[in-house]
Write a structure and sequence with these properties.
Blueprint (H helix, E strand, L loop, with lengths): L1 H29 L12 H13 L3 H10 L25 H12 L1
Helix pairs in contact: 2-3, 2-4
The structure holds iron/sulfur cluster.
The site of iron/sulfur cluster has 13 residues, from helix 4.
Length: about 110
C-alpha cells in the first residue's frame, strides 16, 4: 500500500514537473531571447541549466539539461563576443550567466 502511494506520488510529481517545464519553455520562447545570439546558442536551455547548477543547486538535472543541447548550440560554440549580444526582454543577465556556466564547466 505504502509503495503504491509512493510511486503514484512520484508519477504525479513527474507529471507536474513536465507541465511546469513545458509552460516555462513556452513562456520563455515567447520572450524571444533565442535569436539574439549570433552563434545560435541554445540560450533557453543554457539558462535552465544555469538555474539548476547555480540557484537550486541540482547537479543531476543540470547535467541532464546539458545533454538536451544539440551539437553546435552549447557553451563550446560561444565565441565570447566582446559584449555578449544575447538579450532578454525581462533583463535576465544572460552574459553573466553564460560566463558563470563557462567557469563551472571549464
Ligand atoms: S558571447 Fe553571448 S552572443 Fe556571443 S556567442 Fe557567446 S552567448 Fe552568443
Amino acid at each position: 500500500m505504502y509503495q503504491r502511494t509512493f510511486w503514484s506520488n512520484l508519477d504525479k510529481e513527474k507529471e507536474l514537473r513536465q507541465k511546469y517545464l513545458k509552460t516555462l519553455e513556452t513562456n520563455l520562447t515567447k520572450l524571444r531571447c533565442l535569436p539574439t545570439c549570433p552563434e545560435g546558442l541554445d540560450i533557453l536551455t543554457l539558462m535552465r541549466n544555469h538555474m539548476y547548477a547555480v540557484y537550486y543547486p541540482k547537479f543531476y538535472q543540470a547535467r541532464c539539461t546539458l545533454r538536451e543541447i544539440s551539437i553546435g548550440k552549447g557553451l563550446d560554440t560561444c565565441v565570447s563576443c566582446d559584449s555578449c549580444k544575447a538579450k532578454c526582454i525581462r533583463h535576465v543577465d544572460i552574459a553573466s550567466r553564460i560566463a558563470e556556466l563557462k567557469a563551472i564547466y571549464a
